[in-house]
């Protein structure tokens, strides 16, 4: 089969690999019909995630058709159209029993630190991902779900991470009616977090970024008030000024490890690898939220420490909430919102690129070229 293969930082290509096989009675093999490139895939592409091995296939956002199932699989059959959450989880451990699917204890040798994710380095279990023609899906009775008949693949694939994570970010904010919510980062997850904040009762939603085309999308897709941080000497002071000098009730960090806005943070994180990621957006969130407010973190960071302003968070009495999204837990409510017309996930898709040209897709997405917000990969389009 044809699959995206990692060859080192900024080096990927499409190669022939063996079609995955059933390795355990609970496995399925899925023929991928749509995959996506996530902003967090860029952390791998840029060489920021430890133990990303040459030969790995990325891709934790994908949907497809079941090709084969193991003898123990009961809920799926060959031919089923399925959506697969980015979390790999057993469904029966202490954490899974409490809905903490992203913290499963049975699927990753590094499970005390992180759960397992498709195509996201050996730090996250070493599973190949879905930027390929086929992918092996462990615990096939647990994670995947048959895509509802009324939902198309391009909406479904965005439910496997980006939309679910954005919605989860707003949930972590514990938004109450009338709250002022500020979202740092106007990428796909930030756009969905802003849109979700309205659904949870926010009275004002503000999005911060430095890319004008993404801020324009935040205005048209998420109906948010937007500010470009490069146009202000201090974006935190500006946010205080426009929120009665109190600060926002809720701040959501949807930017994560590669946030722009601080040369020093960028160099120590992205270039020198001295931090698990640049925490500039998280520090802005801590400073921009009011005393007693809530900071939600859904942007991805590596396992190393980062220079976070923890003292400010303590002295302001903030609530900090964060986790990798337990994707499947979000689906029932998101299905309702989509079916009722409140959300159209694929409205943020800007590029559809054949698998054969995935190296170009990574370059466009990484360099923020051609107005790119969310690229999808089409395995059978070559």
Automatic annotation (TrEMBL):
CDD domains the UniProt entry points to: FDH_like_1
Cofactor: Zn(2+)
Domain Alcohol dehydrogenase-like N-terminal, chain residue ranges per copy: 25-142
GO molecular function term, any single one: zinc ion binding
Alcohol dehydrogenase-like C-terminal domain span: 188-259
Species whose genome carries this gene: Pseudonocardia cypriaca
Name of this protein: Threonine dehydrogenase-like Zn-dependent dehydrogenase
InterPro entries in alphabetical order: ADH-like_C, ADH-like_N, ADH_Zn_CS, GroES-like_sf, NAD(P)-bd_dom_sf
Record key words, sorted: Metal-binding, Oxidoreductase, Zinc
Lineage: Bacteria, Bacillati, Actinomycetota, Actinomycetes, Pseudonocardiales
Family: Belongs to the zinc-containing alcohol dehydrogenase family.
């Amino acid at each position: 089969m044809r699959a995206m293969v990692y060859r080192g930082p900024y080096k990927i290509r499409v190669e022939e690999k063996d079609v995955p096989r059933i390795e355990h009675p609970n496995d399925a093999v899925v023929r991928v019909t749509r995959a996506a490139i996530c902003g967090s895939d860029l952390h791998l592409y840029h060489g920021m995630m430890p133990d990303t091995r040459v030969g790995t296939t990325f891709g934790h956002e994908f949907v497809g058709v079941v090709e084969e199932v193991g003898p123990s699989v009961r809920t799926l059959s060959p031919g089923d159209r399925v959506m697969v959450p980015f979390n790999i989880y057993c469904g029966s451990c202490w954490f899974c029993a409490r809905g903490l699917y992203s913290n499963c204890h049975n699927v990753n040798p590094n499970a005390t630190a992180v759960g397992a994710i498709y195509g996201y380095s050996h730090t996250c279990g070493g599973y190949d991902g879905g930027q390929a023609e086929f992918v092996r899906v462990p615990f096939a009775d647990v994670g995947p779900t048959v895509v509802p008949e009324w939902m198309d693949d391009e909406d479904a694939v965005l439910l496997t991470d980006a939309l679910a994570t954005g919605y989860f970010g707003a949930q972590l904010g514990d938004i109450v009616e009338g709250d002022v919510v500020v979202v740092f980062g106007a990428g796909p997850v930030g756009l969905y977090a802003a849109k979700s904040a309205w659904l949870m009762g926010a009275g004002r939603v503000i999005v911060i970024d430095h890319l004008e085309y993404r801020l324009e999308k935040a205005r048209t897709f998420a109906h948010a008030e937007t500010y470009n941080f490069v146009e202000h000497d201090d974006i935190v002071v500006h946010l205080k000024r426009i929120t009665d000098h109190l600060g926002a009730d809720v701040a959501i960090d949807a930017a994560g490890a590669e946030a722009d806005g601080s040369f020093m943070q960028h160099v120590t994180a992205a270039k020198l690898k001295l931090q698990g990621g640049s925490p500039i957006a998280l520090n802005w969130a801590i400073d921009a939220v009011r005393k007693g407010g809530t900071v939600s973190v859904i942007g991805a960071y590596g396992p190393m420490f980062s220079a976070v302003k923890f003292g400010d968070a303590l002295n302001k009495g903030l609530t900090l909430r964060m986790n990798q999204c337990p994707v499947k837990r979000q689906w029932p409510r998101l299905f309702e919102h989509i079916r009722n017309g409140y959300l159209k996930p694929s409205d943020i898709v800007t590029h559809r690129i054949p698998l054969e040209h995935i190296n170009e897709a990574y370059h466009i997405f990484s360099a923020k070229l051609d107005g790119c917000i969310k690229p999808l990969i089409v395995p059978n389009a070559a």
